[in-house]
Amino acid sequence: MLELKNIKLNFSNGNGTAREVLQDVNIKLEKGKLYAITGPNGGGKTSLAKVIMGIYTPSEGQVILDGEDITSLSITERADRGIAYAFQQPPRFKGLTVENVMKIAQPSLDTVQIRGYLRDVGLCPEDYLDRDIGPGLSGGEIKRIEVAQLLARQAPVSIFDEPEAGVDLWTIQKLIGIIIRRYKGNSRGMAIVITHNEQFLPICDEIILVAEGTVKERGTTEEIWPSIREDVICKMKGQCGGNVYGIQ
User: Does 247 reside within a domain?
Assistant: First the structure.
C-alpha cells in the first residue's frame, strides 16, 4: 500500500514568502488497481506525483510505502524500493542507444525482451534498437521509449505522467491495453496515471480529482467519470470557460 498523510508542499517565491502547492493531501492507494489523477492545469497533479517519487520533498506530512516511512528517502532509494516514474517530458540521453536505456531500466533484459517492449508501445525494434536517444527522435518517440522502460521495470508502483502526450491515437489505444493487462487485478503492483484524456479515464478503477492543491473528489470510475466527462472533453478541445471540473 502507498499512503500520503497530511502532505503539504510549499515553494518559495524568492521574496520571503511561499506559495502553497499542495495542502492537506491524504490518499491511500492499493496494489492491484489502476488510478487516474486528473484535474485542471496547475492544480497539483504532477507535483503530487513528484512527491511520491521523491523529486519534491513535502514541507509537511509523510509518504509511506508498505508500512515504511520513505519521506526522507532519495529518488534512487525510492526506485530501489519499487517506485518508477515516466515523465511528462522525458529526458534525452545523447550518446546512448535505445537498447542501452532499456538495459539501464532493467539490466536483466535480453534483446528479445527489449524487442517485445518496443513493439508493445508501437515501435518497430529493427528501426530503433541502435538509434541514439538524441535530437534525431521526436518527442512522441522518446515518450514511447520511456513508457517501454517503465513497463520493463515491472515496479510495484508505476507512475505515468500524461502517457498520451505527443503520441498518436493508435498508440494511445495500445498503451491503454498494455496498462490494463499489466496492472488491473495485479496484486504485485499499481499504476497511477496522471491524465485528462477521455480514453484513459474511463478504464481506471478509481479517479482522483486534484485541484487547488488538494483532493477535491475521489471515487470509482462509475461514480466520478459521468460528472466530469464534459469538462474533460472541453479541456481537450481547448474550449473551457472559467468553471472547469466544477471549480470556479
Answer: no
The band of 240, judged by pLDDT with boundaries at 50, 70 and 90, is: low
* CATH number reported for the structural domain that contains residue 145 in this entry: 3.40.50.300
Predicted confidence at residue 236, as pLDDT, reads 47
* 209, β-bridge pairs: 38, 217
Please state the pTM of the whole predicted model: 0.85
Q: Residue 24 falls within a domain, yes or no?
A: no
Q: Where are the alpha helices (DSSP H) in 121-163?
A: 125-128, 139-153
In terms of residue numbers, what domain contains 45? 30-58+70-237
Please count the structural domains in the chain. Answer: 1
Give which of 150, 164, 21, 146 is closest to 93, Cα–Cα: 146
Q: Residue 1 falls within a domain, yes or no? A: no
Round to whole Å and give the CA distance between 100 and 132.
9
Cell 541514439 sits on residue: 132
Q: Cite the beta strand spans of the chain per DSSP E.
A: 2-12, 18-29, 34-38, 60-65, 68-69, 83-86, 93-97, 132-133, 157-161, 190-194, 206-211, 214-220
Q: Is the pLDDT of residue 198 over 50?
A: yes
Please report whether residue 23 resides in a domain: no
User: Tell me: the pLDDT tens digits for 94-117?
Assistant: 788 999 989 988 999 999 999 999
Look at residues 196, 182, 237, 194 and name the one whose alpha carbon lies nearest to residue 46. Answer: 194
Give the end-to-end CA distance of the chain in Å, rounded to a whole number: 33
Helix pair angle (111-120, 139-153), 10° resolution:
120
d(CA 33, CA 27): 14
